[in-house]
Amino acid sequence: MPATDLDRFVAFRDLAPEDLADLSWSGGDTHLTEVAGQLGRSYAGEVVLLVGALPNGRLVAMGGLDLARQCGVGLLWMLAVHETLQSLGIGRRLIGALEQRARDRGCRTARLTVEHDNPRALALYRRLGYAEVGSTIESWPVAGGRTYVTACAVLERPL
Ligand SMILES: CC(C)(COP(=O)(O)OP(=O)(O)OC[C@H]1O[C@@H](n2cnc3c(N)ncnc32)[C@H](O)[C@@H]1OP(=O)(O)O)[C@@H](O)C(=O)NCCC(=O)NCCS
């Protein structure tokens, strides 16, 4: 199968609680606890959590869209594609699916952040039309009860 066709086999749908068991590739226990904690917000319509599934049902992509940060702006976050299936166009399609959900909910702008030391992801976002609008410091819990702190660029594109 040509690499250019593989991404078309991935179908995107809303994350369900039972999907957490097939997302261990996307991060450790702390990350999965964070994803599980966002499920309640997804039921309330504050966030959209999407997973990308192969025809056999196995999950190979996930990403979130936060609609509650700023009126008219959809924040894409937690973007991840299974390590063995990166660079095949799945990430591009995942972002497209999240952007469509943002449009459906009336957003005029898509925003995301990328760590200063992730040039490959930055290059992908730029190719998809995102432009840097600022920088920020982000932090999230990691194993051992510690907090990871990192510098990020903020990027936006019109929808
Ligand atoms: C960043 C990430 C989500 C992008 O997903 P992806 O599926 O790898 O992205 P895409 O395949 O759509 O595009 C990325 C690359 O594939 C290439 N590509 C896209 N479609 C392709 C195709 N059909 N055939 C071959 N290559 C293709 C792109 O040119 C790009 O090239 P690069 O590898 O030199 O960067 C994924 O790589 C990932 O999970 N990375 C680790 C976690 C992470 O960094 N998350 C983002 C935090 S901000």
Automatic annotation (TrEMBL):
* The species this protein was found in: Microlunatus ginsengisoli
Protein's UniProt keywords contain Calcium = no
Q: Which residues does UniProt call coiled coil?
A: none
Q: Where is the N-acetyltransferase domain?
A: 10-159
**Which SUPFAM superfamilies does its entry note?**
Acyl-CoA N-acyltransferases (Nat)
Record PANTHER family: AMINOALKYLPHOSPHONATE N-ACETYLTRANSFERASE-RELATED, AMINOALKYLPHOSPHONATE N-ACETYLTRANSFERASE-RELATED-RELATED
Which InterPro entries does this chain map to? Acyl_CoA_acyltransferase (IPR016181), Bact_Acetyltransf (IPR050832), GNAT_dom (IPR000182)
Q: What is this protein called?
A: N-acetyltransferase domain-containing protein
Organism domain of life:
Bacteria
Sorted alphabetically, the keyword list is: Acyltransferase, Transferase
